[in-house]
Design brief:
18% strand; single chain; binds nicotinamide-adenine-dinucleotide; 17 helices; six-stranded mixed sheet; 520 residues; alpha/beta
Length: 520
């Protein structure tokens, strides 16, 4: 991608070919986008949840019918293997719509709540209401999944959407096509192309909420800008995910899990495995088997053996600046004494960085604390449970983690002790494979949750409602304040916190004595 004041061009990262040029909108066009979004909002809001899902069902059908074309668009702009585009970009959108088709009406319906005895005669409930036009800003690593997932959720909850894709992988025109025949009101989903200046200009139009996925640096800038207008912000940021492997593990499965968890999407995954901690008795064997498995991956046409091979195992890196960052981190680690077990240098003339395994990491190395976001993973040994937990938690990030052991109780204990938004036991990147599970981070990995029931609530105003009768009586707590009323209310508090039959009886008795204050 090359930016200039009059637009930017999008290239295929594998071949370098120019795909198309994009022109960001000017201020009047951005104003018009928000005018349309505001006009569309009440129309989306007033659709029942089932009506919204019927429209999303058409989106699902379109995606299914055109999945090969979507895979091709994603592959062309990201350089990832086709199977990854199919499985981790296209399928999650279909699965999420299916999950909401089955569950959204139940999740979003009014929910009656218990009303305590001191509020006798009244009814309580929670209801979920759409927010307004929401702004969704996405990164380049999963341009389809990380766009469609929040858009689907926001629409199912009844909002209109203004969406800004990454300037590096805009998939220009694709989302417009997908939503064109869904039967949604005009302006319900609008795509605005541009870089961070465009993102900032969209925030300045005061959307009802900002849903941001990207780096923690950009997340901070967005939170600061949103603070002036108190715009609610959800941040889905980076990670430095730990994988903790105990000595009683099934080693071949753990090695394969580490390989896929660290290398899928060339490690350009917010939840990719970046730090592996292995119990010291098996650490040497783990490193040797993982290194060998990494070297067996097919990373270029020259080492692609099988005739039925669909694609390479490892794609290229999507953006040159990200590859530079990975190279700098590896060089820094080597200079400060780390060992490169395999990989370590890009294939000349390409954006392919081979699977890289590093040991001997120390805290002064950039790779120790910074997100790498590339096909590089570190292995560090640990002695026992307490040390494993301390190492896993020694990070400013807390997005996802995994714990591997043949002892379910040990694995449960460690999984609970790791400060993270998502954790898998004896698996990697698995929580995000289930649309029913909310996704989000702790610490510098962000705030808020999407997907699952929480996703719909994230895009809703959670409204509490208490309903009383239009009776001729007033509440005992209303004016006037007298000494006798004070005494009775004090007794009522004691009775209501006593509990049991005695508490119930006393509450009713004091309530009856208070009722003389209820005449208007
Ligand atoms: P980025 O932060 O550079 O950009 C993300 C998006 O934000 C882009 O659309 C960009 O144009 C926009 N943007 C940047 N600065 C902005 C600003 N000040 N105002 C408004 N918009 C702005 O991130 P990236 O390089 O595209 O993505 C990589 C990062 O995303 C990694 O850190 C990765 O871990 C993270 N990520 C997180 C998740 C998650 O779900 N937690 C998922 C994928 C990627």
């Amino acid at each position: 991608m090359a930016e200039s004041h009059d637009g930017f061009s999008v290239h295929n990262p594998r071949t370098g070919a120019l795909l198309y040029r994009v022109t960001p909108p000017g201020a009047p066009e951005i104003d018009a986008v928000f005018e349309r979004a505001h006009r569309a909002f009440p129309q989306v809001r007033d659709l029942s949840v089932r009506e919204r899902l019927a429209r999303l069902g058409r989106v699902k059908d379109w995606i299914q019918a055109n999945k090969e074309a979507i895979v091709q668009r994603v592959v062309d702009e990201t350089g990832k293997p086709r199977i990854e585009a199919l499985m981790t970009e296209v399928f999650p959108a279909l699965d999420l719509i299916q999950y909401y088709e089955k569950n959204a009406a139940r999740i979003l319906r009014d929910q009656p709540q218990p009303t305590p005895l001191v509020l006798m005669g009244k009814k309580s409930r929670i209801q979920y209401e759409p927010l307004g036009p929401v702004l969704i800003i996405s990164p380049w690593n999963y341009p389809f999944n990380l766009s469609m997932t929040p858009i689907i959720t926001a629409l199912a909850a009844g909002n209109s959407v203004v969406f800004k894709p990454s300037e590096h992988t805009p998939l220009q025109g694709l989302l417009e096509e997908i939503f064109a025949d869904a039967g949604l009101p005009e302006g319900a989903v609008q795509v605005v192309y541009g870089g961070k200046e465009t993102g900032s200009a969209l925030i300045a139009r005061k959307p009802a909420k900002i849903f941001f996925t990207g780096s923690d640096a950009a997340g901070r800038a967005i939170l600061k800008q949103a603070a002036d207008d108190l715009i609610p912000v959800e941040l889905e940021l980076g990670g430095k995910d730990p994988m903790v492997v105990f000595e009683d593990v099934c080693l071949p499965r753990a090695v394969q899990g580490a390989l896929w968890g660290a290398m899928t999407n060339s490690g350009q995954t917010c939840t990719s495995v970046e730090r592996i901690f292995v119990q010291d008795r098996i650490a040497e064997q783990f490193v040797s088997e993982l290194g060998a498995a990494m070297e067996r991956l097919t990373i270029s046409r020259e080492n692609a053996p099988a005739a039925d091979r669909l694609d390479l195992d490892l794609g290229c890196m999507t953006a040159e600046f990200q590859l530079d960052k990975v190279e700098r981190q590896v060089e820094d680690a080597v200079q400060k004494g780390a060992t490169v077990v395999c990989g370590g240098q890009r294939i000349p003339g390409t954006r392919v960085f081979p699977p890289t395994l590093i040991t001997g990491v120390t805290p002064e190395m950039a790779i120790h604390g910074e997100e790498t976001f590339g096909p590089v993973v570190t292995v560090t040994p640990f002695a026992g449970e307490a040390e494993a937990i301390a190492l896993a938690n020694d990070s400013r990030f807390g997005l996802s983690a995994s714990v591997w052991s043949g002892d379910p109780e040990l694995a449960e204990r460690v999984a609970r002790a790791i400060v993270t938004g998502n954790v898998s036991i004896n698996n990697v990147l698995a929580t995000q494979g289930n649309s029913a599970l909310p996704f989000g981070g702790t610490k510098h990995s962000g705030m808020g949750r999407y997907k699952g029931p929480h996703g719909l609530y994230s895009f809703s105003n959670v409204k509490s409602v208490l309903v009383d009768k239009n009776s001729g009586r007033k509440e005992p707590i209303w004016y006037p304040y007298t000494a006798e009323k004070y005494k009775l209310i004090s007794d009522l508090i004691d009775a209501s916190v006593t509990g049991g039959l005695r508490g119930l009886l006393n509450t009713v008795l004091v309530g009856l004595r208070l009722s003389k204050f209820m005449k208007p």
